[in-house]
Structure formats: structure tokens, C-alpha cells
Amino acid sequence: MGQSPKPQMNEPLAMWVPSSSMASEINATGFDDANLPGLRLPKNLRATADAAEAAAGADLLILVVARENMAEVVEQLKGKVKSTATAVVMSKILMPDPLSKEKGDKGSGLHFGSEFVSQALGIPAAVLMGGTLAADVARGYFAEATLGCKDPKVSEVLLELFNKPNFSVSSLPSPTAVELFAVLKAIIAVGAGFCDGLELGHNSKAAVIRLGAVELAKFARRFYPEEASKEALTEACGITDIIASSYGDSRTRRCAEAFAREPQKGWDQVAREKLRSGEPAGIAVLRTCAAFVRSHRAESDFPFLARVDEISASRAAPASLTEMAIPRVRASKALKVAVLGSGNWGCAIAKIIARNALRRTEFQKDVAMWVHEETVEGRKLTDIINEEHENVKYLPGVELPHNLHAESEVTTCVRDAHILVFVLPHQFLPGLLKSIKGAVLADAVGVSLVKGYLEIDRQTGSLTTGTQLIEAELGIPCAVLNGANVATDVAHDHFAEATLGCTSDQSQVLWNLLNTPQFSVRTTPDILGVELFGGLKNVVALAAGFSDGLGFPPNTKAAILRRGLQEMARLIKELYPSSSPDTLLESCGLADLLTTSYSGRNRLCAEAFAVASGTKSWEDIEKELLQGQKLQGPSTCADVWAMIEKRGLENKFPLFTAIQRAVTKEITPEGVFKCIGLVSAT
Ligand SMILES: NC(=O)c1ccc[n+]([C@@H]2O[C@H](COP(=O)([O-])OP(=O)(O)OC[C@H]3O[C@@H](n4cnc5c(N)ncnc54)[C@H](O)[C@@H]3O)[C@@H](O)[C@H]2O)c1
Ligand SMILES: O=P(O)(O)OC[C@H](O)CO
């Protein structure tokens, strides 16, 4: 490639296939029915079962070979490739490094595909990997990938070769950085598949994916400190690939789902039934990586990996995936708790709080819950809740603890309360605060579960968040709890995680109040980071709903979520430069974006909005689909947009800008994807 940097793509393109009968079939028909049924291959493609013949005279060798064929293909190529050629490896392969003992402590002990190919053929190897489920890429739907290439000149040529309007490629200077995420993400897809097989619901799945992503970043930092660039996680080879393979129909996820349903079948049988082949590639990656971690005696630092490995080796039951240690309780004075709000999430969290109050001596046993009174089938909602222990309108079918008391008088509810839990739709927060001002204890503490309260000063563009408003109006400190918490799943005790942003003096008591074995709370001092991630995901979830409404496949949806997550983090940094970059990987960040974008109300309504093609208003859709619950995305979006516009930041936030234009019908939902360059060829 050195002498001729621009490959000539108009010449016949040779493609190696595993058998001569397959080669003849493809050359005769123009179709590869085994791998890509129904799609005609380009006319200049010529199949051959002889790898050396396919590679003869080539400047560029694209290796996109199944794991089980890679060694054989490379063997056939040895000594037959041009010494100036470059390989581009797309196969996601991991093997134990045969040289690791000789390398001693310096050796990583793992061998990725690019290193294997480069060493065997004596030529440089780049990689190209991302959220690229093949069938959808072949059909022209938008997808994105990351090129890992050491040589900047070669990188330029490859970017030109691969970048298309519907296939967006960016580059990093290290192939290993790309492979670390794109290959090891298979372990996360195994965990995601287990969640699907166990039917754990979206919060649990988002929590499992988040735990996996955190461990993957930690693994990279620990064992590949030079290559592990922070960016790789938030590039297409990281977040996009993790999401596409955990939610799309990736082979690893599909097999793991089947294994969790019937572990007695074992991987071989599951793979035969689901893939018509042997053990899926992701399981080989999992085993190799787990053995490597054991050899470094580091299992206790990678509990997610260890647990997924135990389940896959039938040493633990699939259901143990989300087991958590039972927390210890510290006794102190009995605190009165008031829950302000009684909607879908209000009742689900009140159930947790009331159960913890019964168990733990530091809380008074009776918990008060303020209900915005209304009549349901001729009866007061407070009476129904107090007599039948069920909120039949907002959380039907879930029994509420008997020590939870519904109260319609808000000042009675907050009287003498030490802890005020704010959990109502953001649009009603200012009204509530006005009505309780002067009625709360001076040493009370607030904790806000409200997502999306962002008050923008239209003159200056300055921002007041919900916790800031509570502190200013009531003169009490306020913590925040946000996370991947679709309420109905939490109410049914499916495992979920949440992030508690609070000061150190509040953290123990609030954690004791909110944490349970099924609702795992992690604390951070980054209060505003937690709160803003919780609000901003409402906006990105609208784009996820548009993607579903328009029928876009998993690669495209994963790409829009990655772009959204980037803009969320960028806006938080812009507003609060001291916020922690680590908050993105807490439940309130990545995991909440996932659960909302796959099963939340914002997603649901935005999908309906896209399907209606401009014929329905948001108000009508909310009424039709949410049975009295509240949609937050469009109004949060308007607030975010006001902030962006006032500060002149449109260019830095193209996705938020485009979503606002679609929400207000200035452009179509499809226009959002076009505005940020996600164009599908179909
Ligand atoms: N539902 C979820 O899955 C979920 C999960 C996590 C966080 N959240 C967040 O929690 C907050 C509360 O959401 P929710 O799901 O409990 O509410 P919801 O969407 O179920 O909203 C209905 C609630 O609003 C109340 N209401 C209606 N008019 C009112 C008024 N004028 N004044 C005061 N209250 C009024 C209703 O009585 C009812 O309690 C929101 O910020 C939401 O984003 C929701
Ligand atoms: O249903 P949504 O879209 O309001 O999202 C619900 C929760 O915030 C998910 O954590």
C-alpha cells in the first residue's frame, strides 16, 4: 500500500469463501444464500475457495473471516501476500497469547485478531469494528464503525474507502484500543442475552449492560494502560457496538437468551438450534478473558465477568446474575419520611421506602404519601389507596405496603417530616413547593426523584435545576436519586440500579432508606451530574422513539443513542465543568438512557408521533397512550433548546437542536437523522 495509497476499487474484487461449491454457487447466481439471503452481491465480486488466489497482488486484505476459519486462512496466505500490503481485520477474535510467558509481566497474555494477522503475515494490520449487525448494513441502513490504524496516511486512505453517507467511520490510532471494546463487548451481550432469557425487564438489562461496560473500561485501563484510550468506549466500537449487540439480534445475545431459558441444553446444542453452527464466538471470548483474569488472580476485581462466566459454565444458575449482598443497617434516631407524589414512579418508590421503614429502626414505621386528589370511578383515590392498598390508576396490580398512608393535604403530609422525597412530574414541582413553603422542618433533608426540571432564564440562559429550586424555596439541602428505573418493573421487584447524588453527611441515611437487594443504590457527590443526566435522557429518548417509529434497525438506533449520550455529557460539561466524567457510566447515565429508550413513555409517545407523520399533537398522544401519566420529553426538550439557543451553542449540539425542530414539527422525525448525517440508503 506504501507505493499506491489509493486502492483501485473498479477492478474485480476477489472474495475468499470456505468451499469451492459455495464459490461456484456465488459466481453463478450472484447470491450468497447461506449468509445474506435475498441480496444480490456486486457484479465485480468473484468468489474463490483459495485464499492465496484471492489475495494475489492485493494491496489491501480485508479479513472478515469466522473465528474457526481464521488460522486456516492465514496459513494459506503465509508468504503469498505483497510485503507492502495492509490488512484490515474485521473479525472479532481473541485468543490466549502463546508468547505471554516469554513477555513476562509486560505481556498482556491476550492476542487480538490484528496482532495475530500482523505477526503471521508480516504486514501491518488495521481493524474496522462497530455497531454493524451485518444484515442491516447490507440493506443500507445507517450504521457506524471505528477504524483502528497506527499509520495516519493509511488511515486517511481507509477512511475514504469505507466512509459512505450511510456508513460512518471515524478513526483511532490504536487497533488494540478498538478491539478491546469491540471484541470484549461480546461478554456484555452474553449478560444481556441472559437478562432476555430470564425475562428480567429493561431496568435489569440496562443495569447489567452498565455493570459490564464499567468492567470493560476497568479491564482496559488495568491490562492495556497504553492502548486504552478513554475515547474508545464512547466511539462506535464501544457504546454503539455494546448497544447494537445487546439489543439487536446478535448471535451471541440470541444464544445466551436461549441458554438462560434452558441451561441444561449446553452451548453446543443451543448454537446448533439457533445458528446451525458450534459454540458462538462470544462464548469463546468470554472463556478466554475469564481464564486470563483468573491467571492474574483478579477475579474479585471483575465480578461481572466472573459471574457471567460461572453461569455460562453451569457453575451458577442464570438467575444469580443480579444477586446482590444484603446491606448492613446502622441504627440512629427514628426519622419521619414523607413521599410527595403518588404517580407511577411515586408509588413504586413509596413501596420500597415503606418496606425499608418497617425493617429499619432509624425510620418511623408509618410513611406518608401525598396524593394529588382525584376521583376514580366515584371514589377518592386516597380512600382507595388507604383501603385497598393499591393505586388503581397509576400503578394497578401492585400491592402497596400497609404502613404507607395516602394523604391529600400536602401540609399535613410534610408536617414534622425529616426526609422529603419529591417524586412528581417536573411541571408540578414549583406549585408543590409554593404550597409547602414554611411548613417543613428547618433541618429536613430533601431527595428529588424528579427527572427533567430545568428552569431556564429566557434573558440570561442561566439554569435552575429541580434540586436547586427545592433548596432555594424551602431552605433545606436536597439530594437526587435517578437511574434506570422504569417504575412498573421496579414495583414488581425486578432488579434495578439507581444513582444517589448527595453530600457525604446525607449518604448513609438516604442509602438506608432507598437501597434494597433488588434496588441497588450507588452514591456519588456529583449531584448536578446525576440530575442533568436524568433530565437530558428524556430528550434523547424521543429520538429513540422516532427511530422505532420509522422502522430503523438496531445499528441505527445504537448510533443515535451514542450521539445522544455524547451530547448529554457535553452539555453537562458546558454547564458544570467540575461535574465528574465518571457519572456517565453510572445508572443515571448510560443505563437510564438505555431503559428509557427501549421501554419508556418518551420512547412510546415519540414512536407514535413518528408513525402519525405530523397528524397528531403531543397532547393527544399523551392522552391516548399514558392513561393520566405524564410525558416529559417535549417540555424538557424545549427547555434544553432554550438554553442552547441563548448560549449560541447550536453547532455543538446538532442532535438536541434537530430533536427540538422535530418536536415542534419544523422538520419531520426522519429529518433528525438527516440533520446529524445518519442517512440510510434505503
Ligand atoms: N414512571 C416511571 O417509570 C419513572 C421512573 C423514574 C423516574 N420517573 C420520574 O419521576 C417523576 C414522577 O413520575 P411518575 O411516573 O410518578 O408520575 P406520572 O407520570 O405517573 O404522573 C401522574 C402523577 O401526576 C399527578 N398530578 C396530576 N396533576 C397534578 C397537579 N396539577 N399537581 C400535582 N400533581 C399532579 C397525578 O396525581 C399522578 O400522581 C417524573 O419526573 C418522572 O420523570 C418516572
Ligand atoms: O417512561 P419515561 O420515558 O418517562 O422514563 C422512565 C424512567 O425515567 C426510566 O428510568
Describe what you observe in this structure.
The chain is built from 30 helices and 21 strands. It is of the alpha/beta class and 682 residues long. It is elongated. Helix 11 (236-247) packs across helix 24. It has three domains: 13-321, NAD(P)-binding Rossmann-like Domain (Rossmann fold); 337-525, NAD(P)-binding Rossmann-like Domain (Rossmann fold), CATH 3.40.50; 533-675, N-(1-d-carboxylethyl)-l-norvaline Dehydrogenase, domain 2. Strands 14-11-10-15-16-19-20-21 form an eight-stranded mixed β-sheet, with helices on both faces. Helix 22 links the parallel strand 20 and strand 21. 49% of the residues lie in helices and 13% in strands. SN-glycerol-3-phosphate (G3P) binds at residues 451, 484-486, 541, 592, 595-596, 600-602, 632.
Overall geometric form? elongated
Q: Would you state the CATH class of the largest domain?
A: Alpha Beta
Which ligands, by name, code or SMILES, are bound?
Answer: nicotinamide-adenine-dinucleotide, SN-glycerol-3-phosphate
Provide mean pLDDT, rounded. Answer: 92
Provide a compact summary of the structure.
Residues 11-153, 336-506 form the Glycerol-3-phosphate dehydrogenase NAD-dependent N-terminal domain. This protein is an alpha/beta fold and 682 residues long. Strands 14-11-10-15-16-19-20-21 form an 8-stranded mixed sheet, sandwiched between helices.
Summary tags:
single chain; Rossmann fold; binds SN-glycerol-3-phosphate; alpha/beta; binds nicotinamide-adenine-dinucleotide; 5-stranded mixed beta sheet; 8-stranded mixed beta sheet; 682 residues; N-(1-d-carboxylethyl)-l-norvaline Dehydrogenase, domain 2; 3 domains
